[in-house]
Amino acid sequence: MISNLQVDVYVAPAAPIATGHLDPSKRWFSPTSCTLIQGPTSAVLVDTPPTIELSEGLAAWIKKTAPGKKLLYIYTTHLHGDHFLGNPILLRHFPEAKCVATVSVVDGIRKQWPGSLAFWDKLFPNKQIAGDQHIPNALPADGKFDIDGHLLQGIDVPHSDTDASSFLHVPDLKLVVCGDIVYGDCYQFLGEANTPEKRQMWLQSLFQIAALDPHIVVPGHKRASQIDGSYLIEATRAYLLAFEEELEKAGDSEKLEEAMIRRYPQRWNRFLLEQSCQRTWSALGLED
């Protein structure tokens, strides 16, 4: 049967962040992917960007991309705020939408709340973050829901760049919307995958996605021009293995950072690369 579903990806552009760095390459946050899946009458949005301005841009794009469609759900892939802090803005434009996530992701968001909000408010100061935040509603235990009769399923994974992570599988499109399990050309955040065990679990999560044999694979962060495809699963895996290799050779976190820049000079968000290297080095119990 030919699917009457359509998928579009909006990439919220890189945004300035208050890191205090003199290096301008460490004063920008990664572009963020927001995926719209629509049927004949309704739609679901996967992830929203962190700031009011970026989320207003997303809302305007949805209205142009799916005119007359009812946005039923806003699905959050994982517990990091850069993927759900824009939800209140989307709800102002689409008040019938229901914010949802898997049980595990909802629990993860609840546990790190409100400390997480303080972190994002500091990174995006001067009330760039919407004030009327709330935690998404938990989906049924099996993660299943639908739009226009088409199955969608939120599926948990062992780990990604954080512990409470999931992806959205849309079998009729052979689509997986991956959140931060899969990355495009942005430095992967390893600050919460700072041990060999956690990085191994991340690799297991990639295998879990690959086993579904998806044709369309949407990463959580990417260049706007980058095609969404299964090759990104292998690219994410290769980055993790490269990080492991360079970690073995590096004498300190700065040398690790420099080595990753040499291997991946085109990637965005060197602030998160720096954080990843520092936290991973610290987890080794060594001083720089």
From TrEMBL:
Span of domain Metallo-beta-lactamase: 31-221
SMART domains found in the cross-reference section: Lactamase_B (SM00849)
InterPro entries: Metallo-B-lactamas, NDM-1-like, RibonucZ/Hydroxyglut_hydro
Protein name (database record): Metallo-beta-lactamase domain-containing protein
Organism, scientific name: Colletotrichum gloeosporioides (strain Cg-14)
UniProt lineage: Eukaryota, Fungi, Dikarya, Ascomycota, Pezizomycotina
